[in-house]
Amino acid sequence: MLSEQEKLDALLRLGTELNQVNDLDILLEHLLTVARRFVNADAGSFYLRKDDKFYFHLLQNDTMDNASDDQRIPLPGNIFRSPVKDDSIAGYVAKTGEFLNIVDVHEIPDGAPYRFNKNYDMQSGYRTCSMLTIPLNNKRGIPLGILQIINAKDRSGNIVQFVEKDEKMMFHFASIAAIALERAQMTRTLLLRMIRMAELRDPKETGAHVNRVGSFSVALYQKWAEKHDIPQEEIERWRDILRMAAMLHDAGKVGISDSILKKPGRLTDDERMIMNQHALFGAQLFNDMQSDFDEIACQVAINHHENWDGTGYPGHIDSATGEPLDGYRKPDGSARGKIGDETPIFGRIVKLADVFDALSSQRCYKPAWDEEKVLRIIQEDSGTAFDPELVEIFMENLDTIRLIQQRYKDESQDEV
Ligand code: C2E
Ligand code: SIN
Ligand code: SIN
Ligand code: FE
Ligand code: FE
């Protein structure tokens, strides 16, 4: 348990600490952990607003986490999917913007304007008792999220009620947390706008193409990571980041002039040299490396045209300056291409996803090819262009790949 002095120090540090976290999900995990530590609570949840509704987003529960696997019961899926009801506790707080301190959720009087949903306790075997529910309001007083802290514990671990001191502490916490949350959401919104902007810039990088490359990449990573015994928890941590980074693989094309980018025919060697710079330009958009996302987006942009056999571009260069790295200069002074797993896995994955989709689609310089021809090229280029293990995984999971193609179909050609 934290002492009062430790809590105060932690609260003072919180703003700075939270502002270093850009990734929304990591931020929310962190918020909930810190909030629970402040008031020594066993469990907690977070509800996030999407459009005008609040959805269950995150759950932490020490007791359940420490239970053995066969005792642990997963939450019913509909809790995650459907918006919170107006007469639920979180719904009431969202609607009124009020702070609620409930001593025992099973003893809420009949006339109260909110009810506790007993389903969760019934299904999980957990007993929710004391509960503090706090809206995180932005400066305009609009709640962005709802923090729910469950089961305060005293020094010997008995469940007790939340006291006024806890309320005050959480009140300060909420105002700091709301600022960090608004910032993280803005970062995500800006990224989505950036993806749309990149699409507008390059007419063949349509929304559908970008979505397919994002989804193919996540699907390939899931299977690859399973084979490499990467824990599901870690896989999930990277999924959204990889999806967005993959969607932005060609964002560096914003730096390429229209006359080259939109040229209907084949590029000349000089044009080709300029075009190839889009990998570096993309990396430069993200290389301040402020967050995991920046790091992965930079990695994907700079590596998505390397070949497994070392014949790709731009090779071993500094992602900030574009200069070849020491020890990797070829006799002509240019950088040596990355060979095999010198190209990080996310780069190898997005390369395969991008080429597969480019071959399957119409481009201003080529027609769409049928699946048979595309798969033949992919397999022929296994071990030269592509990581052979990834090609194998790709071929084993064609069903998933086709489903993604179905989900994100190109609009009719004249609209594109
Ligand atoms: P993109 O159209 O998104 O293509 C991505 C990658 O898919 C290409 O990377 C290439 O590896 C593969 N690809 C696309 N079309 C073909 C094809 O017909 N055959 C084979 N074997 N592979 C194909 P790459 O070559 O590094 O090109 C990067 C970007 O440069 C392309 O992105 C495209 O925007 C542009 N580009 C490349 N060649 C031409 C061209 O001849 N004319 C024009 N206008 N643009 C080109
Ligand atoms: C391209 O136009 O970039 C690809 C030409 C080919 O290899 O078929
Ligand atoms: C090119 O033809 O410019 C290279 C594209 C490819 O076939 O990878
Ligand atoms: Fe590219
Ligand atoms: Fe692409």
Provide keyphrases for this structure.
single chain, alpha+beta, 6 strands, 10% strand, elongated, binds ligand C2E, binds succinic acid, binds fe (iii) ion
Outline:
With 416 residues, the chain is α+β, with helices and mostly antiparallel strands. Helix content is 50%, strand content 10%. It has helices at 4-19, 24-39, 62-66, 77-81, 89-96, 119-124, 164-201, 207-227, 232-247, 258-261, 269-276, 278-286, 292-303, 345-360, 371-380, 388-396, 398-407; strands at residues 41-50, 53-61, 100-102, 131-137, 143-153, 159-160.
Could you characterize the architecture of this molecule?
There is one protein chain. This protein has 416 residues and is an alpha+beta fold. 50% of the residues lie in helices and 10% in strands. The protein has 17 helices and six strands. Strands 1, 2, 3, 4, 5 and 6 form a six-stranded antiparallel beta sheet that branches. The protein is elongated, with a radius of gyration of 25 Å. The mean pLDDT is 89. Bound molecules: ligand C2E, succinic acid (2 copies) and fe (iii) ion (2 copies). Residues 249-250, 278, 304-305 line the site of one fe (iii) ion (FE).
